[in-house]
Amino acid sequence: MDRVPVLKIGDTLLVSIQVDMEDQTALQLQDDLAERIVATGCHGVIIDITALDIVDSFVGRTLSSIAAISKVLDADTVVVGMRPAVAITLVELGLSLQGIRTALNVERGMELLARGRGDGLPLPFDSDEDELTATP
Amino acid sequence: MALSADESARLANLLGQYGDQIVKRWTDNVSSSLAGRLSTAELSRQIQELHTSLRAALDQRAVGLFDEVAVELRAVLSELSRARARQGFTATETAISVFALKDALLEHIDVSGAGPEVMRDYVAFTGLIDEMGLLTFETYANAREELVADQAEQLLELSTPVVKIWEGVVAVPLVGTLDSARAQVVMERLLQTLVDTGSPYAIIDITGVPAVDTQVAQHVLKTVVAARLMGADCIISGIRPQIAQTIVSLGIEFGDIVTKASLADALRHALRLQGIETARRTGRREA
Q1: A88 with B226: Cβ contact below 8 A
Q2: Where are the domains of chain B?
Q3: How many domains does chain A have?
Q4: Distance of CA B173 to CAs B98, B156, B161, B221, Å?
Q5: Could you tell me if residue A93 is inside a domain?
Q6: Are A87 and B188 within 8 A, CB to CB?
Q7: Domain range holding A31?
């Protein structure tokens, strides 16, 4: 069975999924990630799904639960690099990946995490100007 | 089967014997119905071609239009009606080009004092001509349908540009009615552009959309949700006063999606979210 590597970069864990996600792989990733967050004490998780052609309902749900688990362990999760075709399919299926934050690529995902930590707010996307001036 | 083999032979004979007169009369009939919109030379060439292929088919004892030996005749008829459809003639005018043969034939059949066999021949001949007319009509309709389908496709290509209006901001000015097919194209283009340009903000401008109903709103909402899944935020702009009233009276909920009255407002909002402030340079000129 394929295992997805979890890399630690500073205060962030980076998971780049390069293989087809089977149900077992997804569950294994969920276990690994929970353990690594506790072991490293990281406060951010970035899951890169650029290489994923297919995201089915199970993988979608696993992503949601990974985000929820990370939240409990005080780490924010950002899913990055979703392909247009995957996004369209998920919308058509009516899956909106509740509770998951998204970004276009890893770099933007990092920015999002940094911003979230800097302000101590989960979502800095409000039109409040004070918090915006704090961002570069 | 429109004809028996004997009738086919007799018709071939008739067409051969009075060939030139029939072609002339046929051409005259057609040209009067087309009222000079097709040059006489072109018309007579077409009629001559039809006559030749019809005769060739009958010489091989074709007993109907869908006979194997009449394949050439069918090709000529299809070509004729396709040409007519492209040139903008009506279906009637196209069909008359074939039906005019009946009058031309009648002149050369001795009806006075004719027995029932002559009558039967004529009825059989006209049966064949009717089949030819129907084929013309069908090909004409098909040609027009292809034309319409082509144009619809071209329209789809034309009407969905995605433009980058600032670093990190793309805009889609929607013009015209938004049906499912177009919404799909718009969504795909927008999402692809988001990936290609790495823009975290997209503005969907609906100034050019004549009416917003629940279906259009549904399409726009789907696009916004898909963009969010990819990590980009959408702003909807260009909502006219009447459209705003319609949206409210239909009970359409845009939820936490940002809506702005004009594209300029939407751009300013997107820039502000990126941390760029726009301000008028006041007092500079006087100083």
Answers
A1: yes
A2: 5-153, 163-273
A3: 1
A4: 49, 14, 7, 16
A5: yes
A6: no
A7: 6-107
- CB contacts < 8 Å between A and B, how many? 69
- Rounded to whole angstroms, the Cα distance separating A69 from A9 reads 20
Mean pLDDT of the B175-186 span: 83
| A81 found inside a domain | yes
Q: Kindly report the CATH number that applies to the domain delimited by B163-273.
A: 3.30.750.24
> Quick one: closest CA in A to B198, which residue?
A104
* Whole-number Å distance between alpha carbons of A11 and A53: 29
Statement: residue A8 has pLDDT above 70: yes
- Assigned CATH topology for domain B5-153: Globin-like (1.10.490)
At A131, the pLDDT band (50, 70, 90 cuts) reads: very low
ipTM over 0.85: no
| A120 interface with B at CB cutoff 8 Å | no
Does residue B116 belong to the interface with chain A, where contact is any CB pair within 8 Å? no
From B152's Cα to the closest Cα of chain A, the distance in A is: 23
Amino acid at A8: K
Q: What is the mean pLDDT of residues A93-119?
A: 84
Can you list the positions of beta strands (E) in A18-108? Answer: 44-48, 76-80, 101-103
| CATH code of the domain covering residue A10 | 3.30.750.24
